[in-house]
Each structure stands twice: as structure tokens, then as C-alpha cells.
Amino acid sequence: MSTLFGELRSHIKIDYSLEPRTAFVIRAGGDSPDPTAPDNPFVRISTPYGYSIYVPGSSMKGVFRSHIEGILKAMSKDVCGFSHKRGADCGKKKIEKEIKMIFLESEDDGLQRYQNSCYSCKMFGSTAVGSIVKFDDLFPYRPEDTPEEKMKAVTEIEKYLNIRHGIKIDRKSGSVAGGALYDIECLSGGKFFGSIFLKNPERWQLALLFKTFTHINHGYQKAGGQKSRGFGHVHLEIEKISCLSKYRDKIAFSSLDGNRGFIDDPLSVIKSLDVFPPYSFEFSGEALEKFELDINSTLSRAW
Asked: At 244, which helix (H) or strand (E)?
């Protein structure tokens, strides 16, 4: 029986950029020992090229998951209600008693967990199943940039930093509450680069990612903190999609076929120049637009 991650059907990499269109902040946790630091500094991390502002992949995963769950619910698809034990009520809990003695630690166990997971957990994972989609951190430089270019980008992104001040309004008096002034370090420009990886995805999973890119760019979904106060409108641009597939002229998506497990759901594309598998493909410009259109058009017939 074929499992979801047991073979290479297709690995898909989406290279994209993020550009703030309004004030944008992802706040660092904890308190700074520096008394001059803002109350809410932008998150930073040490890199070989300097102490850099960055956008955590976990933050982008949260943005995409939240929006896609809303789309799935609008389509009347099953989406579990998370408790504080995230994933405990989806996939694992539903079938734990049924398979504990029969399929313990077997491939069928994994198949059953995936089958009994909601659509969101099938795509983004839970304590029961692994995530199809993985989000890299985004940095102000491309991976292929030289070390000198990366160091320059880490320095130059700082020029887009601003300090925004906030206050608290006393609801009884309608005036500013005493001692409630705070400040936020935010970005008003710049550009970040990162990737999203999908391992053996089903076709609908890639289609929902494409739809979410569009919705974010139209302002229906914001990113980061302070979204209700005018922050968080960003523009995402897919620069390139790279694929590995078991077929020379098809992208082999996964499809769950009852007790047979996972089978191939191939999408025809231009033949790869590689002579042995896995075969590589790359889509950008008009080819990328056609690829996205093919995904969406074939999905609409299936869903």
C-alpha cells in the first residue's frame, strides 16, 4: 500500500518575496535589557551576515493556515476545532482506539490518521500527521546572493524601520489613559525572500495556496501584528516554482483513494530535459501563470 511520504511523487518549491505596503511588524518576545529599546521591537536573528530583521516561517504558516481554514469552512469542508491541545481532536484521537491494537506503528496507521484528519490538518499537519507544507524564514536577501550582497541587505533593511506610538483610551472619560503610552518598531518598506515547500501534495492543497496569495495581495488577509490598527498589508509575489516529479512529462500529485492508499494524480506539463528521475521542472513568467491556471481549472472539476 502506498503511503503519503513513502516515495517521491512530486516535491514543489515556491520561491516568493514579501514587500510591506503599510506599517508591518512581527514583534520579538521577551524584554530587552536596553532601556532605550522600543517596547515592541521587530524580531531579529543572528545570521552569518549580521543580526538581521527577518520574517519567521512560523508567522507566515499561521497567516496561510488561518485564511485557508476560512476558505475550507466556506466550502463546507471538514475543519476541526482546536483546543489548547492542538491536533488532539483531529486524526489521532478519532481513530486511536480503533487502530491501537491492530495497526500500531504500521503504514496503515499513518494512512488511517491522514484519512481521519480534517482538511486543514491534512495540509498543515497536527500531532497525528506530518505537514505537507513547510515554510522557510524570509530574509532581506536571496539565497543566491553573494555574502557581500547579503551583508549589505541586512544593513540596508534597517533604514525602513520606524517607531510608531500607541496610546490607551480611558473608556469612561474618552481621554488618554495615564501611563499608557507605548511604542512599536515597524517596517514601512523593504523586501524579504523565502520559499514554501510541498512534499507529495494533493492538487487542492497547491490550489488553496495560490488562492491565498491572491487574497493577501488584495488585502483580505493581513500579516504580522497590530492588524486592526492599519498594520499588516503586504504584497507577495511568486517569483518561480520548481518541481521534482517521478514522471518526465507530468507533475505527479497525490490522491487518496480509499483503502488503496495514495495514488498518482498526474498533471501534464512540457517534457523535462532530464534523462532519469526525479525529473526537474521550473515555471516562471507566462509558464507560471499557465501552471497556476491548470491547477485551478482541474481542481474546480474535482471539487
From this structure: strand 234-245
